[in-house]
Amino acid sequence: MKIFKFFITKIFLRKAILSISIILLLFMANYTTFIATRSILSTFQGYQEIKCMNQEGIYIANLDPDSDVDIDAIGENGTQIVYDYLNNNFNYAFYTDGFMVSLPNIDDMEISLCYMNEEYYELNQFELSQGTDLDFDYQFDKDKEIPILIGKGLSKTYPVGSTIKIEDPVLEQPITLIVQGVLKQNAYHSNFYALNSKNYYNFSIFLPVNAEFIKNANIDLQLNGLMDIVILQTTKEKTVDLSEVMQDNLGLKFNFFSQEENFDYFKEYYLYSLKIMSITTLILLVIITCLSIWNALVSIRLMLRDFTINLLVGLSYSKLRKIFYSYFGILFFINLIVIFSITAYNRYECWLRKDATFATYGFFGLIGMDWFALLVVFLSDIIIGKIIVENMLRKIKKIPISLGVLQ
Amino acid sequence: MTNIIDLNIKEKVYKNKKTQLSILNNFNLKVNAGEKIAIVGESGVGKSSLLNIIGLLDIDYNGEYTLLGSRTDNLHANELAQWRNQKIGFVLQESALINSLTIEDNIKLPLLYAGSGKFFFKEEDFENLINAIAIKPILKKKPLECSGGERARAVFARGVIMKPQIILSDEPTASLDVENRERIVNLLFKMNKEFNTTIITVTHDLEMANRHDRVIHLERSR
């Protein structure tokens, strides 16, 4: 320990610029690895989620980017015609979210209402931590209670069986909800066409909707629901007809993408960008590692006299190896702590901002994918550390340690 | 008297991509305990290389070396380091100090590597040593704040603090004035007399060399 302390304070940290630059380089290597791993993992999770939707015979709606959008010109009559057409000709999965309501809860979060029909619910196979699955066969009646699922963050305030009265933003009237179950913590939803971004359901309410509910809802729900509507067990020709009905009644051009088209899209955008990200990260890592080695070797050259004197009086290469590993081990450990702190603070900040869609539960504030990314950083540190230390020692051994160095 | 050094070098070769230099060809050296030996010779003849080999810094040569009754090629790298720490002392030129450390830390550097148990060091011994070489006032100073003579004495103190059986001394007085040179030489010889320490000195100074028991002239290989 004494020798290690001596090397840290008197040898390694003596050349401030070199020490700081090596610390920064290693931090860059670690942070790049962390961000890339988390991004890849998040995209993979999004891809797994979309895989449930992206099956043969399923077509996912997407507003054509070139379509003229005049929302004000769309009337309830138009949307109702489209829903009637949908109900008569298709099986479809309906989902829309982002309708915020104020509801008392212990964390004082704004609550997001997510509306979905049975087909969407079945496709996604949501996992529950308490209670039972959603019931879609309820009779829509203003005086009756609507069964709902809630996120974990609401489960203390609203346990299973409790009722919630809200002014529903899409029905524009008070309704009573009854909690039927609680979603597993950190349940999430990835954007169909932005797979690495996700919203968390910890402070959401899942409202089951059926044709009658949609019929009674305002145009916001009806129109938002059409934006990502998923048509099941159908054909390309039928979706072309549907697209025409939508164009005629809403003035919006929708594209319906088949499984193959979606896979092509994912390949083109995500697989390609994931490959680019992985390769870029790897190249960056190699460059940063090489720079770190070069930097470390420059330090060695500058401190050669000091090393020689230490070798003269009893330092051995094996002891030196242990010192190097301990030194880089400490640097990497500090980096991991810093990355952990930044990530934990970012997660905590969502709670401070009362940002319900990003508030997550985790071990010491970090969720599973953060820990996994930290593990990858830890493993990459072992590799980087071994490369740097062994290269440094190889170079040191090549330098003849002799009395001549001191003359 | 017993041989504490029995060295037979067939050759020591320095190589680079283009050239190859062979020195110390068929060089034999036997040294008795307590003997004072001076090694002289022109520059490049291999004096420092010889000291590197004797001091276990260089094990890459063709030959056999028995030190204190043990074949050095049987020693592990850690043992070589331990021997350099406890059995061999290096007394070098006054510049061979770590400038970021105080004189006291420089002198006590070998104690860092001595470990616990095997070597027992008394603070009293340190006091005696610094009093003997009169460097108490500079202990808290950095080397660059001291004179050449003071630094030379600090280097000497570091070389002898572990009470080694052999002291290897490489031009210890090269940059010193007469007074300081005498001081260092007397200190070395005092160690030899009091503790029967073997002294091997590399020097260009023939007057100093002649004060040793034996003078070895190294010549360039033909």
Task: Tell me the total number of β-strands of chain A.
Answer: 13
The fraction of residues assigned to DSSP E strands of chain B is 15-25%
Distance between the termini of chain B: 34 Å
Oligomer: heterodimer
Q: Major sheet of chain A, described briefly? A: 7 strands, mixed
Please count the helical segments of chain B.
7
Proportion in helices of chain B: 25-40%
User: Ranges of chain B with pLDDT <50 over ≥5 residues?
Assistant: none
| Mean pLDDT reading of chain B | 87
CATH superfamily annotation of chain B: P-loop containing nucleotide triphosphate hydrolases
Shape of chain A: elongated
- The count of strands of chain B amounts to 10
Q: What is the percent of helical residues of chain A? A: 40-55%
Strand content of chain A: 15-25%
User: Helix-strand pattern of chain A, N to C?
Assistant: HHEHEEEHEEEEEEEHHEHEHHHH
Shape of chain B: globular
What is the gyration radius of chain A calculated from CA atoms?
29 Å
Low-confidence blocks of residues of chain A? none
CATH topology of chain B: Rossmann fold
Key attributes of the depicted protein:
heterodimer, A: 407 residues, alpha+beta, 4-stranded antiparallel beta sheet, 13 strands, 54% helix, 17% strand, B: 222 residues, alpha/beta, Rossmann fold, 5-stranded antiparallel beta sheet, 5-stranded parallel beta sheet, 7 helices, 10 strands, globular
Can you describe what's shown?
- The complex is a heterodimer of chains A (407) and B (222).
- Chain A is an alpha+beta fold.
- Chain A folds into 2 domains: 192 residues, no CATH class; 202 residues, no CATH class.
- Helix content of chain A is 54%, strand content 17%.
- Chain A is built from 11 helices and 13 strands.
- In chain A, the strands form 3 sheets. In chain A, strands 3, 4, 5, 6, 7, 8 and 11 form a 7-stranded mixed β-sheet that branches.
- Chain A is elongated, with a radius of gyration of 29 Å.
- By secondary structure, chain B is an alpha/beta fold.
- Chain B has one domain: P-loop containing nucleotide triphosphate hydrolases (Rossmann fold, 3-Layer(aba) Sandwich), CATH 3.40.50.300.
- Helix content of chain B is 33%, strand content 24%.
- In chain B, a hairpin with a 4-residue loop joins strand 1 and strand 2.
- In chain B, helix 3 runs parallel beside helix 5 and helix 5 runs parallel beside helix 6.
- The longest helix of chain B has 18 residues.
- Chain B is globular.
- The interface between A and B is medium-sized, with 26 and 33 residues.
